[in-house]
């Protein structure tokens, strides 16, 4: 169990002085509580023997008030230092976890669901906070209070203590036996919570699709299944926890019963004074909390260990894409070259890219055409090492991309992905995302290039309008154009368009491309599209089929060359100008697949 807490040792060491101060205040609190029964004993014996005056009682009361004040100060102190430290550790560990998540490669997020990750940031962090805070308090209370009370009872009342403390060993046996069961069941609770979090996140993210297909009942059933699993896991935990506390309380109550029997006899025989009887009863009452605290400590530590194990699972995961030691920064623009690139996904068997070779000279635009599944997006993700290419296959400026720092390589390549993602913040913040701070006039120029400027007047607060989660309040074309402005704003050496104009009309597309190329004159660009009209602005075009380059050349030359590019060009011309005298065989395609690259061609 304790090996899972290894990650916390640096944080515990860092906050050790606060734990020591908290420990001292906790001892002050416990010491004050142990003094009060002696004062009560003195008062009871004095009253019973009628030898106490009002002044003596008043003096004793003032002392008890002073002790109570010390206890109050002690309670504030240990809460401030111990709970404060556990909160700081929770915050620092959460920061470490988030920082580590930012470094992990995309393959990790393909295996780990968002809801599961979020549950580790919430429920698991709360359990770790309790293990580093309240568990420490319960442990110190249990050890200190138990030892001191046992010493007092056995030294002052040796003839009574052995009888009244008979139930105590059974308490520890039960607590230790239940500890392992608690840890196992709590882990199941956390896993069930992760599932319900993931279901909720996925359902809410896809709520529009669910409503469109009228699948609310189906997803309500999925949520109920996850909710039932969470309930059952909690009930299994509660069964153990619910059994533990009553048994401990029952055994603790037996000590009072034994005191009444054996202590009552000694009072009646004169071997024990009434004050001593009351004092022993007070001490036995104080022993109840350490007994419960022992179970509390075991429960919290097992919960914390289970949660810490789930956190360690992420922290122990290393990114499979890292910068080499001594990696360089990209200082100047250069030629991009791909040489005999073959790529197979880590968990796959069939290559998705086969013997790919091409060169993109500095300051030129490369176009890429290919059917769905031909490997276009995979190729683009390999260039900035979002997927890791084999060494000796991709070069920039004459050097293998593995020789560059990841941040420098990726910073040189701004991308507009096929599936546009916008953050749930104002449009302006999304535009300036890659810059942090940006001049308004500069951003307005980027908006003019992408033509999103003409839409901003339609929004209630202009570019200060929040776009909703993942840009849900914008249309597909608007999201793409905001993403284009965002990529252009960073003014990187490379801009990669991965079918980034698919949601805009051809007239807007032409306007964007003209302004884009004017802005990017002398810079390198890669444009992927299903439209031949889009690729006509490229200096060179490669055509992918089944992961291979099957054609390469200037757009005008490819139109004349027999092959996929020409067939797609003719098909799309027919779609744009139906009945214009084209090939009848090609005219027959006009109603199916216009604007798309036919699969398998």
- How many individual helices? 22
User: Which bin fits the share of residues in helices?
Assistant: 55-70%
The main sheet comes to: 6 strands, mixed
Number of strands: 10
Oligomeric grouping of the chains = single chain
Q: How much beta, percentage-wise?
A: 5-15%
Uncertain spans: 580-593
Q: Can you tell me the CATH superfamily of the largest domain?
A: ABC transporter type 1, transmembrane domain
CATH topology of the largest domain: ABC transporter transmembrane region fold
Largest beta sheet: strand ordering = 6-7-8-3-9-10
Overview features:
10 strands, 4-stranded antiparallel sheet, alpha/beta, elongated, 6-stranded mixed sheet, ABC transporter transmembrane region fold, Rossmann fold, 2 domains, 601 residues
Task: Sum this structure up briefly.
The protein has 601 residues and is an alpha/beta fold. It is 61% helix and 9% strand.
Can you describe this structure?
- By secondary structure, this protein is an alpha/beta fold.
- It has 2 domains: 2-315, ABC transporter type 1, transmembrane domain (ABC transporter transmembrane region fold); 336-524, P-loop containing nucleotide triphosphate hydrolases (Rossmann fold, 3-Layer(aba) Sandwich).
- It has helices spanning 9-14, 16-48, 54-103, 106-111, 114-132, 134-156, 161-164, 168-205, 207-212, 216-269, 274-315, 376-382, 406-411, 427-431, 440-450, 453-456, 476-489, 506-519, 532-535, 555-560, 564-576, 584-587, and strands spanning 336-343, 353-360, 365-370, 394-396, 399-400, 413-416, 494-498, 524-528, 540-545, 548-553.
- The chain has a 6-stranded mixed sheet, sandwiched between helices. A 4-stranded antiparallel sheet has the order 2-1-4-5, with helices on one face.
- A hairpin with a 2-residue loop joins β9 and β10.
- The protein is elongated and about 120 Å long.
- Mean pLDDT is 84; it is low at 580-593.
